[in-house]
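A.,

Following up on our hallway conversation. Structure tokens first:
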């Protein structure tokens, strides 16, 4: 497991995994509840503040985990799947690769995460690994731009 070496790497494709804007939903729900309470006559200010803080406290680790483990990023040097990096120079092909049964899933999971599509990638040792993204076509296009074209073998 390698960490980014440079913060100024040019990012060709990015999926953050989750948006920090999800943190707004819990407090927004609490505001709606408070306004409903206000309209019906019974006001529980402390209760709604606790609800807002509780929902915020539950959502923050969820967003953080999704941003850490479900983020996809392509730079000129690496394909990042969660916290795992695959050096681009080890990728042989990203198009016309058949998925192999039991292929390793990048990112450390047993399977491709739910709601993500898989992209079979052939690596230098001849094996096939599975990359994943919500927009596999955009990921494939970004990888095709940085993976050197393989000369046709006659």
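Then the amino acids I'd put at each of the 154 positions:
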């Amino acid at each position: 497991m390698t960490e980014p070496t440079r913060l100024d790497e040019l990012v060709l494709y990015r999926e953050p995994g989750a948006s920090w804007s999800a943190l707004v939903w819990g407090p927004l729900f609490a505001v709606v509840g408070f306004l409903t309470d206000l309209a019906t006559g019974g006001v529980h200010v402390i209760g709604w503040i606790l609800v807002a803080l509780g929902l915020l406290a539950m959502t923050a680790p969820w967003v953080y985990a999704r941003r850490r483990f479900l983020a996809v990023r392509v730079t000129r040097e690496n394909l990042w799947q969660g916290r795992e990096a695959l050096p681009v120079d080890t990728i042989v092909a990203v198009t016309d690769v058949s998925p192999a049964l039991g292929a390793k899933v990048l990112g450390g999971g047993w399977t491709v995460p739910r709601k993500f599509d898989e992209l079979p990638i052939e690596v230098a040792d001849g094996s096939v690994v599975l990359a994943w993204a919500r927009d596999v076509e955009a990921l494939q296009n970004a990888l095709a731009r940085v993976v050197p074209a393989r000369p046709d073998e006659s």
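Helices lie at 25-40, 45-69, 136-146. Curious whether your intuition agrees with the design.

B.
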